[in-house]
Fold:
Amino acid sequence: MRPDRILEGKVALITGASRGIGAGIAQYFAQHGAKIALVARTLQPQEGMSGSLQETADTINQKGGEAFCIQANIADPEDRTRIIPEVLEHYGKLDILVNNAAWCRFIPIWQVTPKQWHLAFEMNVIAPQTLSQQAVEHMKAQGEGWILNISSATSDLPPSTPYDNESRAVQFNRDGHPTLYGTTKAALERLSAGWALELSPYNIAINSLAPVGVVLSEGAMALNNYSDADHVESIATMAEAALQLCSKAPSLRSGLNVRSIPLLESLGIPIPEKN
Structure:
């Protein structure tokens, strides 16, 4: 097998694949030989909105890959139930599941409404759990599989007293209000580690991956105006790190909650240039 076709013969399902990290991972996996099932709410291009499933699929297909679009609302439990069956009906198998779709709002924690709380957990924790449940029985039957949950560095615990008000970590955790989002991602990382251990007898890898810096996806730019170039990371970095976690033997790489750049550095892989 050619090194650049390491996913030849594999089928990968990517959620949140209409733009940003999800689209980047989908395109990169297709370049390496995988057939791709794309999931998001936005099927066709819409005025005033960047990115759609069709645009991601067109990019893949124009480069000689193969992509299949599933329009679905990941936050809707009923809508989620049809995603895995549609992939299996279309491709006949599923080797890789990338749970990338997420709901993110940076809100002072004392202002978070019950609706926002439930939506954050529905999208960021419950959806990956239920999609993994649907995928894993098929992966068990075929004897291997890879599940990758996309997390966030906001899952890291903030510093405790005495607070250094000049510290970037203190400033971000105090003024950036990442507590809601970070709480769901911390839960996702614990969930991933538990899945990995419990599924270790079945040759299925489960890992979580987070960027070290801000990835300037369309969604991130809509929420915040980032100008600190030292804390910006390319989508290509996440795509390469995702490939490393979804292409190696499950017995070698599972149960990891890792950050993109340290992972690539530990493997001796050059860091892609920033966008």
In short: Residues 114-142 form the longest helix (29 residues). The first strand starts at residue 11 and ends at 15. The chain has one domain: 3-266.
